Amino acid sequence: MKLILLGAPGAGKGSQATKIANKYGIAHISTGDALRANIKNGTELGKYAKSFIDKGQLVPDEVVVGIVADRIKEDDCKNGFLLDGFPRTIAQAEALAKLTDVDYVINIDVNFDLVTARIAGRRMCACGESYHVSTYDSDVCAKCGSPLYQRADDKEETVKERLSVYEKQTAPLVDYYRATGKLIDVDGNKTIDEVFAIIVGILDGNR
Ligand code: AMP
Q1: Catalytic-residue membership of 40
Q2: Looking at ligand 1, which residue's alpha carbon is closest to its atom 12?
Q3: Which homologous superfamily is 2-206 in?
Q4: Could you tell me the pTM of the whole model?
Q5: What's CA 193's distance to the chain center, in Å?
């Protein structure tokens, strides 16, 4: 199964991606995580990407397309994969279409007020877990015990820019994929477990 998860920043792509990848035994590919790993390891690619990420802008297409092109060739993608946060532009979608086909594109639809509140309260762990201050009352990770932190690009001004970038550059992908007949719309204004149950119901129903 090859899936794409579409949705605005804070729509819950990362939370759903982890659960979907676990359930179906497919690789979870997050371009955001890959870029943050490069930043953490101090690579040239990381230094270059950071200048865009910190401003809330998109990293140039060729950088993320290169990451995905290499990643989907790896062994753990043989059963399929789920792309989380890629593609984010029509050019990326066209590049992806040349690399591989996909079965479904899940569009997690959320209202922007909710997204802003979700991002403001989001706390991350280096191990990849994420939490929300409204439901998790600790500053260390429940899974690995490391201290939680707020992503630099989760600060208010940067979030505004990311939402505006989403509207201009990424939202057109909804119509792009709708035209392929592969788009599945999901109401993302519900809880993580409710949204997950809807997605599983649709994927299992379609198989
Ligand atoms: P995310 O973790 O998916 O929210 O991504 C964090 C940041 O990484 C984004 O705001 C972009 O700056 C960059 N990024 C992640 N994926 C992409 C992509 N497919 N295209 C361009 N930039 C990306």
Answers
A1: no
A2: 53
A3: P-loop containing nucleotide triphosphate hydrolases (3.40.50.300)
A4: 0.91
A5: 17
